[in-house]
Amino acid sequence: MKTKKADLVLRSNQLFDLLVKWRRDFHRYPELSFKEKRTSETVIGILENLEVFQIEKNVGGYGVIATVTQGEGPVVGIRADMDALPIFETTESPWSSRVPGVMHACGHDAHTAILLGVAHLLAEDVKAGRFQGTIMLIFQPAEESCDEWGETGALKMLRSGKLDKLDVALALHMCPWRKTGEIQWHNGPSMANNDEFHLQIKGSGGHAGYPQNVKDPVWMATYVLQSLYSLNGRKVDPLDVGTISVGQIHAGEANNIIPDIVEVQGTIRSYKDEVRETLLKEIHQTAEIITALGGEYSLKVNRGEPSLINDPYVNNVIREASYGMTQYEAPFGMGSEDFSYFTRKVPGAMFFLGCGLDKETGLHQSDFNIDEKSLPHGVRVLLNSAYLLLERGGGFQ
């Protein structure tokens, strides 16, 4: 028996008030990565009231997995992230953050509400005998930050073993540069590998009036910075995507003292794994300049999440499921997204859901906001995609 799809557009639209209620509640009470206790408890309470899910709690932190199985077939996972950012909100909306210095500035409150909407409609279909297959709803903690071991919530949930039966994974992300009723999709690498580096340049400081008596790490740093910036245009094929950016430089405490140490920190972004490895290799070689100039150095590189690779077959299903919406094909930019760990494990895809207002704001900005009319679109596209995948047996054999 295949799932019998009642009108998902109509039913999703009928959830609008609930979706807004949930989203605003999560927005008022944002929680940082690995601290999503209230959010998780709220999600669990709503899922338990639906009375159809097997619920697993505290997976990879405060993660929640809600599973429903009716008969044989592939296992489709739908993932939403729940954490917020360390940002002071400036929207002044009635549902603004009530937690000083913490804000949902990336739309994870909407992601969580949308997945609860999926759960609501899925539960209706299960109770009405319209559902056939297995769907896992994955409420993930800690997308924005990693722990002391460099692991984000996606990696922790996958390593828990609770998701080993997944055959395919779906996700969405709010997109403020697209309007409600629009989606953006892209095949293959669509968001960046994300690595960070911390370079410490060590010299021997002293009086600024006697530079001949010191080994000036600031002077050494000027050569290092020139080399780092030249890597963007000279070591990466212009047809590929890759960049190195310096975000922090720290040195000295007085204008008449040459310091002993200069610290340079930055990020390395790329789409292809081979470009990632090239840039990492070149950073290590660039650091050798310091030795040639008479200094010493230490270099630490933290490898973050890999690039997001969207499966073309899954994307075709998403495009079919979003009938009637305006579709754009383009990569999502040089940001990173730990859903990439899912798409490295199983075929999967993330699409960007238009939610832009007349005043466009970027992700991670203090005045970020969304058009809440976009929420039902997210519900119906995700659930319709999952149903299509189930009907087609996954489609990967």
Can you describe what's shown?
By secondary structure, this protein is α/β, with parallel strands linked by helices. It folds into two domains: 8-191 and 308-391, 3-Layer(aba) Sandwich (Aminopeptidase), CATH 3.40.630.10; 193-303, Alpha-Beta Plaits (2-Layer Sandwich), CATH 3.30.70.360. The protein is 33% helix and 27% strand. The chain has an eight-stranded mixed β-sheet, sandwiched between helices. It has a four-stranded antiparallel β-sheet with strand order 10-12-8-13, with helices on one face. A two-stranded antiparallel ribbon has the order 7-14. Helix 4 links the parallel strand 3 (75-81) and strand 4. The longest helix has 20 residues, at 108-127. The chain starts with 7 loop residues before the first helix and ends in a 6-residue tail after the last helix. The model has no long low-confidence stretch (mean pLDDT 96). InterPro entries: Amidohydrolase, Bact_exopeptidase_dim_dom, Peptidase_M20, Peptidase_M20_dimer. Keywords: Hydrolase, Manganese, Metal-binding. Mn(2+) 1 binds at residue 173.
The CATH top-level class label of the largest domain: Alpha Beta
What's the gyration radius in Å?
24 Å
Described by its quaternary structure, the protein is single chain
The total beta strand count reads 16
**CATH fold-level assignment of the largest domain:** Aminopeptidase
- Largest sheet geometry: 8 strands, mixed
State the helical fraction: 25-40%
The mean pLDDT is 96
Number of domains: 2
> For this structure, what is the CATH homologous superfamily of the largest domain?
Zn peptidases
CATH architecture of the largest domain: 3-Layer(aba) Sandwich
Structural class: alpha/beta
> If strands are numbered along the chain, what order do they take across the biggest sheet?
1-2-4-3-5-16-6-15
Shape: elongated
Unreliable spans are: none
Reading the helices and strands in chain order gives HHHEEEHEHEEEEEHEEEHEEHEHEH
